């Protein structure tokens, strides 16, 4: 993946959009966060009236060696089975993509079970799952770079297809464990504050998860690792692909709407690799997974929704798409006080 620096959003367009918001026929500030969203799109697109976001959703799937330690409520085979469900249009994210008119692409970044090459997805499997982060580096340096590039290539396809907003989804049995490890490593928060029940593990499963994360963190403790090395040690193939996706989107001047726990862990890693990325991200929702609110706060973001979701796949982000479309429509189409002949504040 390229290391070209990221552009900065256009501050003059942001200010012009803010001035427009203050002239629209409503008390200034009365549309709250929707005003901020519209102004940020103005800055991202470098124009006072931004185009509709034309969102693209890419779901990255991969498996995790740490699943062998009993950290998920579901068997590893579900990752591949769900990829088939994505391809058949039956998963939650398929419904939400259709409901929102969003492009949906599914990428095999590293599913353990072989998938039929005829399956209508992007076959970009870097490895048959990651290694067990509790014992060894989850990814080699080469696997990390290849996964970042899988994500970057997906972002290029989405942007080339006309997307002005990117959504990454994840699918990977066991992936809340590497995500928790990354959030602990990048924020300094402790295991108990970050590790949660994922797909719904029982108390014994939760204890195994905490232990796996603690062992992974102990392996890297005291080593002066770069953010890339931390991502390789504790991450996963789809998590690194999502990081590469966000980075390449921003490099192309296209923002991303960050989904739940796994996507946020990927965003944190990507922001540590390239701090300017933070200006190109919006947080969709706060997941029920323990530690997600802490991770979003560490990115300096505020979630739009709290619907007690804990699904992944990009579903929380997809649910925010109508809000974003409406924030931009209001900004672009409302009359100003002058246009409507309405008196301004006294
Ligand atoms: O995104 C979230 O906030 C989220 C929270 C809990 C679980 N998930 C999904 O559930 C799977 C991981 O859960 P687990 O228990 O196997 O680690 C994976 O496929 C994720 O997409 C996702
Ligand atoms: C069925 C199922 C669907 C999912 N979608 C994202 N993570 C998931 C985990 C499971 C177990």
UniProtKB/TrEMBL annotation:
Involved pathway(s): Nucleoside biosynthesis; alpha-ribazole biosynthesis; alpha-ribazole from 5,6-dimethylbenzimidazole: step 1/2
Pfam family for this entry, one: DBI_PRT
Biological process (GO), any one: cobalamin biosynthetic process
Active site: 313
UniProt enzyme class: transferase
Name of the featured protein: Nicotinate-nucleotide--dimethylbenzimidazole phosphoribosyltransferase
GO molecular function: nicotinate-nucleotide-dimethylbenzimidazole phosphoribosyltransferase activity
Keyword field: Cobalamin biosynthesis, Glycosyltransferase, Transferase
EC numbers: 2.4.2.21
Family label: Belongs to the CobT family.
Catalytic activity: 5,6-dimethylbenzimidazole + nicotinate beta-D-ribonucleotide = alpha-ribazole 5'-phosphate + nicotinate + H(+)
Function noted in UniProt: Catalyzes the synthesis of alpha-ribazole-5'-phosphate from nicotinate mononucleotide (NAMN) and 5,6-dimethylbenzimidazole (DMB).
Organism: Crenobacter luteus
InterPro entries on file: Nict_dMeBzImd_PRibTrfase, Nict_dMeBzImd_PRibTrfase_bact, Nict_dMeBzImd_PRibTrfase_N, Nict_dMeBzImd_PRibTrfase_sf
